Amino acid sequence: SVGRAMARHAGPRLPLIVKNLIPTLSSVFDSQRITTTAFFAELLSSNVVNDLLLLETVLDALTGRQKDACVLVRMLALRGLGNVASGSPEKVRKHGAKLLASMVNGMDDKDDPHNLVALEAMSSLSKLLDHVEERDIQSMLLHIAIRIRPFFDSEQPDLRQTSIVLFGNLTKFSEGNCEVFFEQILNGLVTLLLHLQDPKPEVVRVSVPGLDPPPRRGAAGLQLFPFSVPQACKFALRMCGPSMGCEGLCDMFLNHLREDRSLHYGEFMNDVCKHLMQSYPEMLNRLISTNLFYFKSNWVDIRAAAPMFIGFLVLHVAEDHSQQVDLDPLLSGE
Description:
Elements: H1 2-9, H2 14-21, H3 30-43, H4 48-51, H5 55-63, H6 71-87, H7 96-107, H8 116-128, H9 134-138, H10 141-148, H11 157-170, H12 178-194, E1 216-217, E2 223-224, H13 229-240, H14 247-256, H15 265-279, H16 284-293, H17 300-316, H18 319-322, H19 327-332
Antiparallel strand pairs: 1-2
Helix pairs in contact: 1-3, 3-6, 6-7, 6-8, 7-8, 8-11, 11-13, 12-13, 14-15, 15-17, 16-17
């Protein structure tokens, strides 16, 4: 891109260029605001803005675009703020609170029918999490977990994948809010296990820190990563395992959900349900009711996995807990 090329080859001229471009961020023309925001976003992926003392200027400029009337400007502004994680990672901690607030605001964007802003916010937040202060993320951890949960079942595979990866990354900060975040893990557990059977799009656009294979360029300059929704679920479940308080389940997730290992889903779910009913038998009805929701899923493989999941739960529950099962919704399939 032009931004990256200029960062590499025209460093000394950048301060004047940035100064002259900042007024166009308030232009009445969408095209000018989009172009300038995209240029600034690419600049932030290089450390040259830090070397030239431009980081704060460009950060402030992009932060000011969060309420722009144009969805694409808002999306590109968040992409730029997320690029600080690669361009100037040592500065993320200093600006962590501002960057995190921008990502949360992006996820809460109400004027974004296709969720482009939310997608960029989730992807950028995953990149930033390795560099922020734990105290900055703790206060908004629960809000983020609740906010991204509906995206797990989105019709858009990139939203499913990005939100699930972000959820896995959030578990790194769950120690201080163990009980609260454990509840969020339980809320998402059935969905993550069922989406191991998710339709497998070959490519979705997202950045997964520490897990990405080398990127290739796609249409419109998007970064493309061959990282499917089931792989995202494997990653999230591996990350959730240590917080679940069940050593057998944690070991299963770590050993069976490796990226390089194929999964025999039926056998895996049988063993998962055995551990769940040994450790959390009181959760039986809750797990069953969540699975019932997926009996009407648009995805055939998930629709088939849900009743199998219930069957294994009932198979492994102890007799004194089996009385809690409400047979009516099971028999009616609703």
